Amino acid sequence: MKAVDQKRISLNTATVREQWNLRECIDGCVCHDIGGISPWRDKLHECGVDEAARMIRDNGLKVSGLCRGGMFPAADAAGRQAAFDDNRRAVDEAVALGAQCLVLVVGGLPEGSKDIAGARSQVRDGIAALLEYARSLDMPLAIEPLHPMYAADRACVNTMKQANDLCDELGIGLGIAIDVYHVWWDPDLATEIRRAGRERILAFHVCDWLVP
């Protein structure tokens, strides 16, 4: 078996969310010779984006992605505008960190809604609007398909095919974050990974599937 180059690995801070703050995550990466970090925004906000960027930079870590933007669907126009404004801030934070992409967990159904097609339409429109801003700052967006059990409340994009279709439609600056936890079950996974190709796959998350 080929040895793993630790410098090519990135620690997603969700892995140790309850155990470590961002400073401890950075120290852990350095201690274990891990070359990258993928912080969640809550960890950034604990210490401030500028301080987070400084700590990461001073320790020589690459930022493989910022988690997360998304959560586009809302019950009314005001909610959709609030989501867009927060996503613009997420793009700005990703730029400040020098992140390789902003990961999108796109959102589920608005409260009280049973219209998944409508939610997916809002996701498409939300990504399209955000993509214009992200392109202006040269920040790629990465759609992360989530397991169908999360379709109602976290992400109504649930397969690689759906993500690839959105990338085909919306074009340059949009890619995919593949999370093994969420897509391992998909019988079309290998086909859709090949369809995405090296250029479109912006992140690859390795984790366990936990059976209760």
How would you briefly describe this protein structure?
This protein is α/β, with parallel strands linked by helices and about 210 residues long.
Q: Into which percentage range does the β-strand content fall?
A: 5-15%
CATH topology name of the largest domain, in short, is TIM Barrel
CATH architecture assignment name of the largest domain:
Alpha-Beta Barrel
Uncertain ranges: none
Main pleated sheet: 5 strands, parallel
Please state the overall shape, judged from the principal axes of the Cα atoms: globular
Number of domains: 2
Q: Return the structural class.
A: alpha/beta
What's the N-to-C terminus distance?
31 Å
What's the assembly state of these chains? single chain
What would you report as the Rg, rounded to the nearest angstrom? Answer: 17 Å
H/E series: EHEHHEEHEHEHEHHE
Q: Describe the strand arrangement of the main beta sheet, using strand numbers.
A: 4-5-6-7-8
